[in-house]
Amino acid sequence: MSDIITKEQIRQPENLVYSKTKLLTDKALSYCPGCGHGTAHRIVMEVIEELSAQSETIGIAPVGCSVLAYEFMNIDMQQAAHGRAPALATAVKRLMPEKYVFTYQGDGDLAAIGTAETIHACNRGENITIIFINNGIYGMTGGQMAPTTLPNMKASTCPYGRDVATMGNPLKITELIAQLPGVHYVTRQAVHTPGNVRKTKKAVRKAFDLQKENKGLTFVEIVSNCNSGWKMTPVQSNKWMEENMFPFYPLGDIKVDGQLIK
Amino acid sequence: MAKVKGDIVVDIEKCKGCEVCITACPSDVIAMSKNVNGKGYHYAESVNEDCIGCANCAIVCPDGVITVYKVKL
Fold it and tell me: Do A10 and B3 count as a contact with CB atoms less than 8 A apart?
């Protein structure tokens, strides 16, 4: 009966398949249960681990839920004023062009108060990577309407749903910046299923590799859930995201090698 | 046919009980415990011997609390 094996025999270091990367600190993440931020943090850190670039990478934390990213990412980090992460990343990259520099921003940070900095950094074609987490809501401040909130989607400042006649249309900032000549690679991914996580990791890896080749700005949008802001359970919010967010924010590459897809 | 046997170890105190791992598991190995951790969350635990060590649960876990082991028999 050689196929009877105890759990203790399986749990040996030589049988290890997957464990949390050492580039994330042991601090418990401050995010709500089921939030995509944790997965996105881990993917970025796993890519940096693959590149053996822990001491060669400088991250820029935003304002928002992920303001404490520097507590969890075990690399050199700066924290920018609200929306100004691309401007700070520009300075860091120009002073230290041999380092990998990335910003990690949410939709309130990147697409609302930081629109000017985002668009101009993209237009200048800075050699940085922008990781953009889009959950269609201001999560940290209590679920207010963001520029990326979907039409008729409820938020605490539009409790009857976003009325586009009075509140404007959702901003597809990713498609907007893809038009700019300084941007080399633009993609939109998600992190709610194992398959999507693997695709997102490949996209982040590609973005960092292109940055090393000084190709221009690389931009990875991650459509994520905000179960607290959307008032759902994590599993329900992932389902809602598939049914409502993905038709409006379709996944896939938008710009590859400086050429728009479609 | 080579048989694969896996196992998961959950960092109970860091698990927030979001249940995302349950939908990701192809073998229905994971369920939420009846007990709670120090923060009051029902944590994920392995409830049967069907784990194949695919690591899907660990990959989607937002808090990275799952460690996966696998052996080929």
Answer: no
